[in-house]
Amino acid sequence: MTGGQMAPTTLLGQKTTTTPSGKVMRDGYPLRVSELLATIEGTSLIIRTSLDSYKNLINTKKAIEKSFIYQIEERGFSLIEILSPCPVDWKLSPRDSLTWIQKEMTSVYPLGTFRDKFEEAG
Fold first, then answer.
1. What is the average pLDDT score of the chain?
2. Is residue 4 part of a domain?
3. Which domain holds residue 33?
4. Residues near 75 by Cβ (< 8 Å), separated by ≥ 6?
5. Helix, strand, coil percent values for the chain (each to nearest 5)
6. Could you read off the pLDDT of 34-69 as tens digits, one per residue?
7. Which residues pair with 113 in a beta bridge?
8. Would you say residue 87 lies in a domain?
9. How sure is the predictor about 4, in pLDDT bands with cuts at 50, 70 and 90?
10. Which of 4, 49, 55, 88 could form an SS bridge with 17, CB 3.0 to 4.6 Å?
11. Looking at the domain assignment, is residue 8 inside a domain?
């Protein structure tokens, strides 16, 4: 999505076209979008999922469907944050990029539901 440049979500040490030696603390810590948005009034659904396995692909599909339902029913803002592989810019094989998501990204960006206003309400 960024063409390989560093983004606010780039992990410390991760190499990009604009940080060939790896992102350092001076560039800022990774921004945890889901955790931040989950604290804002008016959000109804905030979920982080991944495309690193078949199981997570199915979970992603369910999360997107749920967010569409919430939007159609005008329940408030929804965001589905999806960790997606980028083997070309990461200079990894497709398989290794999935493993990198599992081992590196999910330790900084854990998967899960950060806000579901309507399930919390019971």
1. 88
2. no
3. 29-120
4. 44, 45, 117, 118
5. 40, 15, 45
6. 999 999 999 999 999 999 999 999 999 999 999 999
7. 47
8. yes
9. low
10. 4
11. no
Question: Which uninterrupted H or E stretch holds 48?
Answer: strand 43-50
- Mean pLDDT for the stretch of residues 2-18: 74
Count of domains observed in the chain? 1
Task: Single out the residue of 80, 58, 83 nearest to residue 69, CA to CA.
Answer: 80
What span, in angstroms and rounded, lies between the C-alpha atoms of 4 and 8? Answer: 12
What is the spatial distance between Cα 112 and Cα 115, in angstroms, rounded to a whole number? 9
- Does the residue 21 lie in any domain? no
List pLDDT tens digits, range 88-110: 887 889 999 999 999 999 999 99
Helix (DSSP H) and strand (DSSP E) numbers for the chain: 6, 3
Q: Per-residue confidence at 122, pLDDT binned at 50, 70, 90?
A: low
